[in-house]
């Protein structure tokens, strides 16, 4: 699949959500004067809320054909819904139907499909004449990232226009050909015949105001970049205030306390950073095991306690003679500690330092790390994750920038690898645009793909209960990959 085949366009008609709250509801376009001949629904399970809402709205639709081979009957009887105990696919037999007979008997069909991956072979089996009979399609796609999906979306785009996109927050995201895409997503297509002019690109942030999370209590997947959203990528950072349309996303619907502390550190990312050998040698001389243990490193950005917490984690978990990545470094103090323990170190940053030093290389976060295929033995991130997506350093605004960064770290870590993690922990606070403080609300999302093995410094419970809003303390946490 080419990500550009998921380009979203503005709907020429209002949108409406039908079905129950959370998973089971879908967004449709209210096309005026359309006369749907039939609703074809695939994948019922134990929920017909969408079908019932649709039939209430479109009273002149006499028939809904509902298909699902995994259940014995509908959860609720409805005289306007005919149940067929078959799955939908590319064949026609006793247990599977390709729907050709139904399609060829109707025009202006409304199609609603959630068939757990069966959508791809079914679409591939359809002819262009079949697709032209669909006035509107609402469909959930399940991890369509292999070669077999290559032409599926091109085929749909030949007859229809994608007017709504929503990521299902059940299953995370992936970086696919340079674009972060939800693994499971819902699409609404309307037939091109309903457009009187050339479709315009979508500029509205995803999710929309009428979307709902599929999994209650789990963070939405926010998208503000092409091909889904065009012309509104929030790259002109930093922003002194959070854009109104992103406020709920950043505060998790007011669950995160908001403080103001505006910082503009973009100059650090527009001027070249050079770590010459004299500088690195100086750090390696200062940040030895003995100097750290005896508080003899000299002036440091984070104080000797942070150095000692990191060192204790490195020594206890044998972070030595390994291949290590360090995420986000303004100066090579952590790199020096790791080099002194005979590690091979790769620094990952938005603004890549220039360095030529044994056992140290520096790589770009976006171009290298998000597409890297050689995982690391361990990954170190200290005072970095909490800044991701806030725009302070010139990075694009992204309410889930920190969660995406942790997903990228997870993907770059060996199965038996460790993450040594440090960031502010206390009561959930967004100190705009300086940093986040992770508490009982957001920290579980940060660690959702990891097990926290050990905390160095103050405990999680102590920090949650005894710090005030905005108070800053950075423990060191050892994480293993789930």
Topology:
Blueprint: E1 15-18, E2 26-29, E3 38-42, H1 49-57, E4 64-67, E5 81-84, E6 87-88, E7 96-97, H2 100-104, E8 109-113, H3 119-125, H4 128-132, E9 134-142, H5 152-159, E10 160-167, E11 173-176, E12 179-182, E13 184-191, H6 247-250, E14 257-260, H7 267-270, E15 274-275, H8 277-286, H9 289-293, H10 303-316, E16 323-327, H11 333-340, E17 344-349, E18 354-355, E19 360-364, E20 376-382, H12 401-411, E21 413-422, E22 429-432, E23 435-437, H13 443-446, E24 450-456, H14 460-466, E25 476-481
Parallel strand pairs: 3-4, 3-8, 4-5, 6-7, 8-9, 14-22, 15-18, 16-17, 16-20, 17-19, 20-21
Antiparallel strand pairs: 1-2, 9-13, 10-13, 11-12, 21-25, 22-23, 24-25
Helix pairs in contact: 8-11
Structural overview:
The protein has 482 residues and is an alpha/beta fold. It has two domains: 3-233, Rossmann fold; 267-481, Rossmann fold. Helices cover 21% and strands 26% of the residues. It has helices spanning 49-57, 100-104, 119-125, 128-132, 152-159, 247-250, 267-270, 277-286, 289-293, 303-316, 333-340, 401-411, 443-446, 460-466, and strands at residues 15-18, 26-29, 38-42, 64-67, 81-84, 87-88, 96-97, 109-113, 134-142, 160-167, 173-176, 179-182, 184-191, 257-260, 274-275, 323-327, 344-349, 354-355, 360-364, 376-382, 413-422, 429-432, 435-437, 450-456, 476-481. Strand 22 (429-432) and strand 23 form a beta hairpin. The model has no long low-confidence stretch (mean pLDDT 92).
């Amino acid at each position: 699949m080419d990500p550009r085949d998921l380009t979203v366009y503005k709907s020429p008609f209002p949108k409406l959500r039908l079905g129950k709250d959370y998973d089971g509801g879908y967004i449709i376009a209210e096309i005026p004067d359309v006369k749907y001949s039939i609703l074809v629904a695939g994948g019922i399970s134990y929920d017909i809320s969408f079908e019932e809402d649709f039939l209430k709205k479109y009273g002149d639709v006499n028939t809904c054909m509902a298909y699902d081979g995994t259940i014995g009957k509908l959860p609720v009887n409805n005289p306007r819904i005919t149940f067929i105990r078959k799955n939908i696919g590319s064949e026609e037999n006793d247990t599977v139907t390709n729907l050709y007979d139904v399609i060829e008997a109707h025009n202006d069909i409304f199609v609603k499909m959630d068939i757990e991956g069966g959508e791809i072979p079914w679409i591939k089996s359809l002819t262009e004449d079949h697709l032209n009979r669909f006035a509107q399609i609402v469909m959930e796609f399940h991890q369509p990232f292999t070669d077999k999906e290559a032409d599926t979306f091109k085929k749909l785009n030949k007859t229809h226009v994608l007017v709504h996109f929503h990521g299902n927050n059940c299953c995370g995201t992936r970086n696919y050909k340079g674009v972060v895409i939800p693994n499971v997503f819902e699409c609404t297509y309307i037939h091109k015949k309903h457009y009187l002019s050339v479709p315009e690109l979508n500029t509205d942030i995803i999710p929309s105001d009428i979307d709902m999370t599929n999994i209650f209590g789990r963070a939405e997947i926010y998208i503000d970049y092409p091909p889904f959203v065009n012309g509104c990528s929030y790259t002109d950072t930093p922003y002194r205030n959070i854009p109104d349309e992103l406020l709920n996303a950043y505060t998790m619907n007011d669950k995160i306390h908001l403080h103001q502390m505006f910082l503009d550190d973009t100059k650090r990312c527009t001027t070249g950073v050079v770590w010459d050998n004299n500088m690195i040698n100086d750090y390696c001389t200062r940040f030895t095991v003995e100097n750290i243990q005896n508080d003899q490193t000299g002036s440091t950005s984070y104080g000797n306690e942070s150095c000692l917490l990191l060192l204790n984690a490195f020594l206890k978990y044998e972070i030595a003679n390994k291949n290590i990545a360090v995420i986000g470094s303004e100066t090579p103090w952590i790199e020096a500690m790791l080099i002194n323990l005979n590690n091979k170190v790769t620094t990952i940053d938005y603004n890549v330092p220039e360095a030529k030093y044994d056992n140290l290389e520096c790589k770009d976060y976006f171009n290298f790390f998000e597409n890297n295929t050689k995982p690391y033995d361990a990954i170190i991130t200290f005072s970095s994750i909490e800044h991701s997506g806030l725009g302070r350093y010139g990075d694009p605004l992204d309410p889930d920038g920190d969660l995406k960064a942790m997903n990228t770290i997870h993907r770059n870590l060996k199965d038996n690898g460790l993450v040594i993690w440090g960031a502010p922990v206390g009561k959930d606070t967004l100190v705009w645009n300086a940093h986040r403080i992770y508490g009982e609300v957001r920290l579980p999302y940060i660690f959702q793909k990891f097990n926290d093995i050990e905390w160095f410094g103050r405990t999680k419970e102590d920090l949650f209960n005894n710090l005030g809003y905005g108070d800053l303390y950075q423990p060191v946490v050892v994480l293993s990959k789930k």
